[in-house]
Task: inverse folding
């Protein structure tokens, strides 16, 4: 039985051209990656057919971004029901977008992803 290869490639929106407004010294680069499966004895599940380790892109701020913050309209949708701490997470996202990126237009989406589709909300 042929093992299915994991594909962790993130689709690209093209070249990022706008300098990030963040004033940090720890920007990440696209070639910074982490190994998919680090457990001992699992070598066969973490190597592609060409012998290259299966890796994932590391999260973190980039030095350049795709969208110009003053022109961005950001939307936040939470899904999955009530969760302890979700209000703190939403507040942190809003604070980061507003004060660090300078985004002025931030909205909340009611009813999760269904709230993005006209006529799909069950009330």
Result:
């Amino acid at each position: 039985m042929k093992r299915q290869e994991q594909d962790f490639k993130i689709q690209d929106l093209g070249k990022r051209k706008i300098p990030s407004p963040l004033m940090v010294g720890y920007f990440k680069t696209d070639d910074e990656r982490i190994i998919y499966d680090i457990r001992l004895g699992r070598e066969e599940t973490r190597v592609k057919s060409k012998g290259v380790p299966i890796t994932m892109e590391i999260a973190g701020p980039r030095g350049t971004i795709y969208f110009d913050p003053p022109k961005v309209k950001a939307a936040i949708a939470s899904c999955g029901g009530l969760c302890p701490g979700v209000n703190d997470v939403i507040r942190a996202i809003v604070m980061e977008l507003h004060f660090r990126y300078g985004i002025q237009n931030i909205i909340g989406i009611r009813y999760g992803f269904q709230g993005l589709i006209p006529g799909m909300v069950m009330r």
Notes: The chain has a mean pLDDT of 83. The beta strands are 18-19, 33-35, 55-57, 64-65, 73-77, 105-109.
